[in-house]
Every structure is written in C-alpha cells, then in structure tokens.
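I had to read the description of the data format several times before I understood it. In essence, backbone conformation is discretised, so a fold becomes a row of integers matching the chain in length. I therefore recommend that a typical entry be quoted early in the introduction. For illustration, here is how one protein appears when written out as sequence plus structure tokens.

***
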Amino acid sequence: MTSKERAELKSQAMVLDSIFQIGKASLTPQLTDAVRDALDARELIKVSVLKNCADDPKELANLIAERTGSEVVQVIGKKIVLYKKNIEKEEKKKRMEKAKKKRK
C-alpha cells in the first residue's frame, strides 16, 4: 500500500464508527471470523480495544491483519483501522461501468 493510498484510507476512516470491540477475552476465533466477514462486506473497518484488554493494540492489529489477510492502515491509541481489498467488488464495478458505456 502506498502512502497516498494509506492517507486516503485514513481520511475515510475518520468518519467510521468502530464495529467491533476487543475486551477481556482478547482475540477469539469468533471475533476473527466476524472481522473477516466484515472486511469482505465493507473493505475498511475500525476496531476498538477496550481498557480491560491487557494486549497491546499494535500487536492485536498485526495479529488480526495476519489472520484475516488484511492490512493495518493505522493504530491510534486503542483504535485499529483495517483494510482488505475486495476483488469481487472491483470486478463488479468494472462490469457495471462497461454496461453503462454500452448503453450510451
């Protein structure tokens, strides 16, 4: 990921709300699966690490990214921003654009 792409994703993440919280149980397999599903649906997500979680947010971010095949955009305090490009979405967009061009 280039610095320009990272900067763009950071700006998009500013308005996002956290859709997952990591608490005392830390990173469970169920949470990992849920994060993977959310990344497939949204591409860009924000995760909060609660105060009662003893793990380091940067380590958690790297672990989640490794397990889900995503990239860490940024970790600020106890907020983690993750990105995973959805290839199927990109292909669908391209097909839709081609169809629009053919209609014209």
User: Anything to note?
Assistant: The first helix runs from residue 3 to 13. The two ends are 35 Å apart (CA to CA).
